[in-house]
Amino acid sequence: MRSRRSFLQDVSLSAAAISIGSFPKSYNKGRPGRQAESSRILRVAIMGLGSYGTMVAEAMRTCTRAQLTGVISGTPSKMAAWQKTYHLEPENCYNYENYSRIKDNPNIDAVYVITPNALHHDAVLAIAGAGKHVICEKPMSVNVREAQEMIAACQKAGVGLLVGYRMHFEPHTLQVIRMRMNGDLGKILFFQGLSGFAIGDPGQWRLQKKLSGGGALMDIGIYSVNAARYMTGEEPVWVTAQETKTDPVKFPEGIDETIQFEMGFPGGAVASCLSTYAMNHLDKFFLNGEMDFVDMQPSSNYGPIRAHTSGGPVNAPDVTHQTVQMDEMASILLDGKKPLVPVDGLEALRDITIMEAIYKAAATGQRIML
Ligand code: NDP
What pTM does this model have? Predict the structure, then answer.
């Protein structure tokens, strides 16, 4: 006989992804094609044709609800290559000087900002000002003030603001969240998050504070911060943190190499996490409850994601994360679908608030209350 747990582990992911509410209708107000929203395609321009932008564009080839129709780039040669590869109309291609004209372009519904972290804020404000939906990469901003301004600008413009939290649509991750919600794990007591890789080229923007806003925590540690929240289902009330730096030349002032941090949750659970640019093989989440545990490794790379409990593997489909993300985001923006775990500006603001507190805790040695 199948146990309740194995039933839950096998439950089709589509159930987990089903709409459970509605998004503010103002997002769609007055937009063309409102009558036939569920069949509409979200037409997206990617800003920043770098390594992740390319991955998203490739993944969008198999989307059913989202389509790449334009680009914003500072590199004319890339723009020309993308026009050819993705069959983009030249009038849908902009540079950083003229992209405010996108407001007059009826063939672009949303802009996906995939530039270095510190450039997200100004871009999001400009895109909102042009009346287009925004999808912004993580971290949404490099501080709390900017995040608040971005949320306010999108609200004022009546456009959606979503953040590229691809794990919020990943089938194994959703399955584990459902198991926790269904009480399969019992009361949640502990989360461990290990997020890191050994970063290469010392000249890259990720190691320049003015473009990155910070080091490993902003870039990769954010996965553990975010997962601690969606895995426990709670918001932390305090953080403590300790920083280690072995190479102050490669990791200058303002660029954290390794930070260990802890979080406390209102229900009594604690989280213990490691964020680092100094070592590979760190991509693991462990969630422990009174009745069972879930071990996920890999837990947030591009997949396939793997998870198991005491009862065996958590079965869920392996997908291309960005394909599912973009189709789901089309449903959120066009149909008002509500995802199981939010991917909006407020969700990002919470992570950024926690990361600011982690930096403060590491600098002061104090426990920071949230
Ligand atoms: P890349 O360096 O590969 O690409 C960034 C692109 O941004 C560049 O190619 C360039 O495109 C544009 N750009 C504009 N101004 C600058 C500048 N001053 N310096 C450098 N590039 C500039 O970075 P990634 O693609 O790896 O990362 C971009 C964003 O995506 C980051 O916020 C990162 O955190 C996020 N990311 C998210 C991932 C996820 O899984 N969700 C994975 C990887 C990254 P152009 O020449 O077209 O202007």
Answer: 0.92
